[in-house]
Amino acid sequence: MAGFDKRVSSYEEAMAGIEDGMTVIAGGFGLCGIPENLIQEIKRRGVKGLTIVSNNCGVDGFGLGILLEDRQISKILASYVGENALFERQMLDGEIEVVLTPQGTLAEKMRAGGAGIPAFYTATGYGTPIGEGKEVREFNGKHCILEESIVGDFAIVKGWKADHYGNVIYRHTAQNFNPMAATAGRITVVEVEEIVEPGELEPSQIHTPGIYVDRLIQGTFEKRIEKRTLREG
Predict the structure, then answer these.
(1) How far apart are CA 126 and CA 50, in angstroms?
(2) Who is most buried in 124, 133, 182, 218, counting CB within 10 A?
(3) CB within 8 A of 22, min separation 6: which ones?
(4) How many CA atoms lie less than 13 Å away from 92 in the CB half-sphere?
(5) At 209, is the pLDDT very low, low, confident or very high (cuts 50, 70, 90)?
(6) Which residues of 123-155 are buried (b: 16+ CB within 10 A; e: fewer)?
């Protein structure tokens, strides 16, 4: 609805309605552009049995990694295990179901879900364990597997700036999975560094239109660096 104010005043209000067993789609890549405060609120609530859809699962003690500490996640769809030793241990011990998904396929699962497309064909993964048990068709001489799209009960997203109506701009590489995730939640919650007055954002610069956003909150962020690399000399 045009002109609808999406702002909420607390993280408790932002994540109201999340329950055990829900599917949560989380934006971010590594520790870049992750909705860290919304993740903290999920941890505080102690909900269990979550299915998480995200590029990776944060690191030990930060990002989505904190949800592993109390075993709040039962299943995760991710493109890699990353720098998280606890995630790796729980996966190898069979405590958590991990569906490793090619990165582009994961992004398209979110985008297609947000666009109302139930499934799509891709050549990625054909002839590998990724494609086992999936429908195969041939297009222009190339074998493709059928991948189902994803829609989450919640999508949690990190933006840079937004206006009251939930129009969002992401900063540089923090775009990563956030724009796709924002479209794919039945309830989409966005936390941003700054909320501005309506009309202050240049319309051509908006990445996520407010029609996709249900709740908006301004937060402060730690912005950790996952792996620092320095040049000698």
Answers:
(1) 29
(2) 182
(3) 47, 50, 51, 152, 153, 154
(4) 7
(5) very high
(6) ebbbeeebbeeeeeeeeeeeebbebebbbbbbb
Please choose, from the candidates 99, 30, 36, 97, the residue with its C-alpha nearest in 3D space to the C-alpha of residue 58. 30
The per-residue pLDDT for range 45-55, each reduced to its tens digit, is: 999 999 999 99
**Measured CA distances, 86 to 82, 153, 181 (Å):** 11, 25, 25
Amino acid identity of residue 134, one-letter, is: K
Q: Does 3 score more than 90 pLDDT?
A: no
The owner of tokens 């992401």 is 170
CATH classification for the domain delimited by 11-218, as one of 3.40.190.10, 3.20.20.70, 1.10.3720.10, 3.40.1080.10:
3.40.1080.10
What element of type H or E holds 153?
A: strand 152-163
Higher pLDDT, 161 or 231: 161
Domain ranges within the chain, ordered by starting residue:
11-218
Q: Tell me the DSSP string of 12-50.
A: HHHTTT--TT-EEEE--BTTBT--HHHHHHHHHHT--SE
Is residue 233 pLDDT above 70, yes or no? no
Answer whether 156's CB lies under 8 Å from 124's CB: no
